Amino acid sequence: MADRRFLLAGLGNPGREYHLTRHNIGFLCIDHLADSHGWRIDSLKMQGLYCQGRLAGTQIFLVKPQTYMNRSGECIRSFLDYFKIPPEHLLVLHDDIDLAPGRIKLVARGGAGGHNGIRSIIRHLGTQEFARMKIGIGRPQVNPKGGGQPVDQFVLSRMSDDERALFDQRQSVIVEAIELFVREGIDTCMNRINRR
Question: Is the whole model's pTM more than 0.85, yes or no?
């Protein structure tokens, strides 16, 4: 049934130069979920790399918009419309600089919080009523003189080995949260995951 379809969208930028950057955490999460189920995200449709499968008896679509971060909403809106998926069955996975590295927080709705990918999705959907999984990357360190790496450079820089190890440790929680979202909805997902 169409109303039981879900879209899981990971945000990032296409191209090898962005592969392991902090801003591509969403792509990496979607890749890990696909790998854990033996799926391959290798089809191109509506400006997105995607695959489909079944999770908890439900048809799901995984997509990585290839539009670059600032235009993510174009691809996601097209997928929702084409596959007749309601916005309440959309979960967007993205980086968040206001959360400590490795922290995972689920929210049911809200503004963009300075994230250009989320801003684009809100603009194209015409609503803030869609679920997000925020994956913390922290902020750049400030040096003793009060300066530091600008945020835009920080998010587009590659993760350190320690950051990658931390991210790898959190993958099981990310997969658990996605499965909870599909099976039981965003409220249950928030209650169980956000307390950790």
Answer: yes
